[in-house]
Amino acid sequence: MSAFEGSEPLPLGTRRINNPWSPFDCKLLTLPPAKSYLDPDGDLCIQVGESPATSFVVCSRTLARSSSYWNAMLNGEFKESKKFCSESGSERTIKLHEDDPKPMALLLNIVHSRFDQVPSYESIIDIRYLYEISVLTDKYDMTHVLRPWARGWLRSTQHLSTWPGLSLREQYCHERLWISWELGDTTNFEKIANILLLNSSTSAEDANSLRCDGILEPLDIYEDLQRIRLDTIGALLTSLDNIIQGLMQKDEKFCQRSGMSMKSKGKRTQAGQGDCLASMLGTGIQSLCELELYPIPHPVDVQWSVSDLSAKLKTVEIKGNFGEYHKCSQELALQAEMEKILNSIHPLLTEVHQRHLDSQAKKSGV
Predict the structure, then answer these.
(1) pLDDT tens across 333-346, in order?
(2) In which residue ranges of the chain is pLDDT below 70?
(3) pLDDT at 46
(4) Are 210 and 303 in contact (CB under 8 A)?
(5) CA-CA distance, 55 to 104, in Å (whole number)?
């Protein structure tokens, strides 16, 4: 049984994939026992999740030393810190109903030095499980406790990109972007952000939608991706519109061989420049209509991804053909302009993003 089997349904439009990597341990994808004693002499019970909650008996001092957040929760003025049972001789209890018991069990095992319950550096971990771990390390300021394993576990986020034809959801791109953000993996963060930029659509029902409900989002990155995507689509459509408008206005620069003679019915006649321009305009509009690109849409109305739009534009035919003596085409000019646009996309990372990633990398050791 793979780590992907027996889990929640995938989003609409996706399919299950057999994981080519051996998952390190399927037991980590199942709920821990109803009550686990991580410290036989523990003085604190943490109840995680609900219906029913999973209880972990831990050492409060060990937990407080693991992060400033836990220290403030256990010894400060957090609302949760006031939920301790005050009865003499009873366990103190904290209730964390919103958290997932599975990743919480891993983090608590780490801080209590129960390393036999922790996957090794070489282990391949289910991406969704690693995402849930990163959600809690962010929430409880525990990124640093993953330092001995983070670099190795991040390999689990990379292999799906090598599978052709997978949607963004099948690649778990949104989870991987957050994992990279939390662990400070700048290389993968940029790579996945670029995948989202080039391959995302605006349809909420599409498995290639730019955003994914319920997945944590790095600061402002999706707003930046949305803006750059729109700018890129606008630039691609503008390059196309410039050619069509030039042909409509009979701009002479689009016919590079005007005035040359052509042979028709045994007689040599002059190839009219207007005829060539009209031919290119006609073939261009016909081709665009077949691709559902005419009238040329506004960028905000384009639901296709940048990659899909580029692929469509590469098939556009804009030809003037009056025999072997007179051939014009704007296809190469359009493709050259497209390549220029795609190669000059604005950098995805801002200084704010880079500072955060650098800070997290120092914690995680990535």
Answers:
(1) 899 999 999 999 98
(2) 1-31, 77-91, 160-163, 256-273, 321-327
(3) 95
(4) no
(5) 11
Partners of 95 in the beta sheet? Answer: 47
Q: Which residue ranges does the chain devote to CATH 3.30.710? A: 22-118
Query: Max Cα separation, the chain?
Result: 112
The CA distances from residue 155 to 160, 161, 176, in Å, are: 10, 11, 11
CATH number given to 22-118: 3.30.710
